[in-house]
TrEMBL record:
It comes from the Bacteria. Pfam families: Pentapeptide, Pentapeptide_4. InterPro entries: 5peptide_repeat, PA_immunity-related. This is Pentapeptide repeat-containing protein. It comes from Dokdonia donghaensis DSW-1. SUPFAM superfamilies: Pentapeptide repeat-like (SSF141571). The lineage of its organism: Bacteria, Pseudomonadati, Bacteroidota, Flavobacteriia, Flavobacteriales.
Length: 189
């Protein structure tokens, strides 16, 4: 039987020691909780906030994440690609997303603020109007993704192949244009 939680705070809980109930969490806050390597499958998080949580290697198989904020979280290797895409809505602030997977997800208007994102996979994702504000995108893969009107003006260390992505209206700063030419072997000095 599924549980329902609304407007509750969960603080300092190590869910690797006590399981998180299956069910729906509506407008709940999780602070400094440990979810490392857990399967959070088939749970629903509506308008929830995760603050300073460890979600390293978390699996979200069939999980609904609607208007969820990850603030100051560790999400190394988190696999978002298997989330329920219906009403998927994510925001990230000051969270480590290295090695995470967002393959083929609808991520329109998603915000990534001040996030290290090395080797993240956005293959075939729709990142139209997404914002990468002060993000470090080392070896992040955008192959066959939609970046319509996406904002990369303050992002650094990205490599985006313009022949393998849709970039119409995307915003870039003059001093970081090398990331658009690197895949062509062009050297800028």
């Amino acid at each position: 039987m599924s549980s329902y939680y609304s407007d509750q705070e969960f603080t300092g809980i190590d869910y690797t020691q006590q399981p998180l109930d299956k069910g729906e969490y509506d407008n709940c806050t999780f602070g400094e909780c440990n979810f490392e390597s857990l399967h959070l499958s088939n749970r629903t998080f509506l308008e929830c906030t995760f603050i300073n949580c460890n979600l390293t290697n978390v699996k979200f198989g069939g999980t609904s994440l609607n208007q969820v904020l990850f603030d100051g979280c560790k999400l190394l290797g988190a696999d978002f690609s298997v989330c329920n895409i219906f009403m998927l809505g994510l925001r990230f602030r000051e969270s480590v997303l290295n090695l995470s997977n967002f393959t083929a997800l609808p991520l329109k208007k998603t915000t990534f603020i001040d996030c290290p994102m090395a080797e993240v996979d956005f293959t075939e994702a729709d990142l139209s109007e997404a914002r990468f504000d002060k993000c470090i995108l080392t070896k992040t893969n955008f192959e066959n993704s939609k970046l319509l009107r996406a904002d990369f003006r303050t992002a650094i260390d990205y490599t985006i192949n313009p022949t393998q992505t849709i970039l119409k209206g995307a915003l870039f700063s003059n001093h970081n244009l090398a990331g658009l030419l690197r895949s062509s072997g062009i050297i800028i000095k």
